[in-house]
Amino acid sequence: MSRTHINCTINGDETDFLSESGGSLLNALRDDVGLMGVKEGCGTGDCGACSVLMDDRITCACLIFAPEVEGRTIVTIEGLANADELHPLQQCFLEGAALQCGICTPGFLLAAKALLDKNPDPTETEVRYALAGNLCRCTGYDKIIRAVLDAAEGIRASATSGDAA
Amino acid sequence: MDYLAPITIEEAVGALASTSDSRVFAGATDLIPQIRSGRPEPGLLVDLKRIDRLTAVTEGDTSWTIGAAAPTSGLTENIAFSRQFPGLSEAAGLIGSDQIQNRSSLGGNLCNASPAADSVPAMIVNGARAIIATPDGTRTITVDQVATAPGHTSLEPGEFIVEFEVDKPPARTGDAYLRMTPRTEMDIAVVGAGARITLDADGNCTEARIALGAVAPTVRRVTDAEAALIGHPITDDTLSAVAAAASAACDPIDDKRGTIAYRKQVAGVLAKRVVKLAAERAAGTATENGAH
Q1: Is pLDDT of B291 > 50?
Q2: Are residues A133 and B102, on separate chains, in Cβ contact within 8 Å?
Q3: How far is CA B148 from CA B111, B154, B200, B216, in A?
Q4: Smallest Cα distance from A143 to chain B, Å
Q5: Which residue from B2, B33, B49 is facing A44, i.e. has the nearest CB?
Q6: Looking at residue B162, which CATH number applies to its domain?
Q7: pLDDT tens-digit readout, B174-207
Q8: What is the tens place of the pLDDT at every residue in A82-101?
Q9: Residues of B in contact with A43 (CB under 8 A)
Q10: Quick one: closest CA in B to A2, which residue?
Q11: pLDDT tens, position by position, B140-162
């Protein structure tokens, strides 16, 4: 199996690594870059546990060949918080108990971020559709949906107060 | 597996000619699961997404050109395209989750050659053409000539689809695509139905195209249903004739998603609804979306 030298930006840092040319981005991130926040669920694009942002678009890392990310910008769950300050989505997931085992959580958070970046004031239905590609087997969806709506409200409120200041 | 990302069509054609064990891909949303489920790995993966023409979506004076590897999210988010082709836009938007939408493409959906591919009936009723790169230049065929059987296409080894051309619809024309799935998202069509309807000023149908997915080895045009509409207004009687013709045109299989009898029944119901929605769009009276 040939290995390829790949350059890309991961969580704001220019990164280069060697990876199997026919391997997935999921395996590259975990095994070659050491970012364990990206999880493998189904490995076939159904569960969303491996969701990452590629050039600001939500994608399944299991369905991307590692060399495809040459020159691209990747954000994983490790890049969501601002240093020690959790992203509002992370804070609302914690406060709303929107997770149990946590395997699906990184994917949900990044899919929710992709939604809120595009649509800061989504309806519950829009949140449910935007998260249809993410499966949770323990908490269930209700708390997750509520946490995303709460986070959206919080982000909008702080944006408004920021404008006023 | 080796990986190559050519930036020109000529380079891609050359790479494919260099080995018989190569495979082009766009979003890989079908390719990777197929490899994981045990299909043989190709020796050379040829990624088409770095070729500008393959990912461009361009509005011309009389037609649109859609790169075969352009992500379907780029179509659903394109307001001008979605206004002119609501049915095709909605069909493309039904392919998987947002994660999949950012990778899935019309070229991949067509060349994977699933009978249930959502975008294919919608492309066929809009008369879409496929521009195919070959070692000797390009050739153009209509989209209904691409898939020949489940998993098989008429493309020769070394060929790939560069882009689709679809003419802008004439006046008083509407398209629509509806599918039946047990779930609202993340599912594969039990039956899919696409229609494009043109009405005259009096509301009589002057042109009709109806195509069904998941009810035969390839997407099926229902010419009997189309003929039942021509020259007539869209009434309960003409819609009943459409439903009967659609059910009769089916040649489905029994599988976990539906029985033969169920698929035939649903094909009739969906054909009726999709014609009605397309006609409402043609008349400018549509109030509902086909999808969500």
Answers
A1: no
A2: no
A3: 10, 6, 35, 11
A4: 20
A5: B33
A6: 3.30.465.10
A7: 999 999 998 877 789 999 999 999 999 999 999 9
A8: 989 999 999 999 999 999 99
A9: 36
A10: B2
A11: 999 999 999 999 999 999 999 99
Last residue of a domain, one of B167, B199, B225: B167
- Chain B partners within 8 Å of A2 (Cβ): 2
ipTM at complex level: 0.95
Test B45 with A22 for CB contact under 8 angstroms: yes
Spell out a b/e string for B127-154, using b for 16 or more CB atoms within 10 Å of the CB, else e: bbbbbbbeeeeeeeeebbebbeeeeebe
CA B15 to chain centroid, in Å, comes to 28
Helix (H, G, I), strand (E, B) or coil at B27: coil
Helix (H, G, I), strand (E, B) or coil at A105: helix
- Structural domains of chain A ordered from first start: 3-79 (3.10.20.30), 88-160 (1.10.150.120)
Segments in chain A forming alpha helices (H): 25-27, 88-95, 105-118, 124-130, 142-164
> Considering the domain boundaries, does residue B147 fall inside one?
yes
In a domain, B291, yes or no: no
- Are A68 and B49 a contacting pair at CB < 8 A? yes
Residue B289: inside a domain: no
Size of interface A-B (CB pairs under 8 A): 85
Q: Alpha helices, DSSP H only, in chain B?
A: 9-18, 31-36, 52-55, 73-76, 79-84, 86-93, 98-101, 106-111, 119-125, 223-229, 236-249, 260-283
pTM beyond cutoff 0.90: yes
Report whether B166 contacts B124 (CB < 8 A): no
Secondary structure of residue B257 in the 3-state scheme = coil
> Which two structure tokens, joined as six digits, stand for B178?
């509806």
B292 in a structural domain:
no
Chain B residues with CB under 8 Å of A132 CB are 97-98, 185-186
